[in-house]
Known about the structure:
alpha+beta
Amino acid sequence: MSLKTKRTYKFLIFKVNDDGKEIVVDARGDRDGKWEQLTEQLPEHECRYAVWDHDFTNKEGRPMSKIFFILWVPDTAKVRSKMLYASSKDNFRTMLDGINYELQATDADEIDYEVIIDRCKEA
């Protein structure tokens, strides 16, 4: 809700806590946060969930915002972690309100900023 309605954050990154029983906030991006700040905070060998609030101007020149849910599952992550994040994704995502798009990425190329821009061209 802080991201969608209050627009307090540009992005949030979540992780499953050490005992595997709770999903907690791992990082927050201020409202003026950049895409690179989000991607730089995704660990190379660990899974994460992320939510990105993307502001853009549509074809008619109207300012818009779309919220992306990202499942970060790098190829180098442990199999147990991959399974945990994959199995809890749907339940966690349903608790988040206002998600417009979903991305799953296993390496940095799959979450390039151009992917975000291309998805918003439909709006």
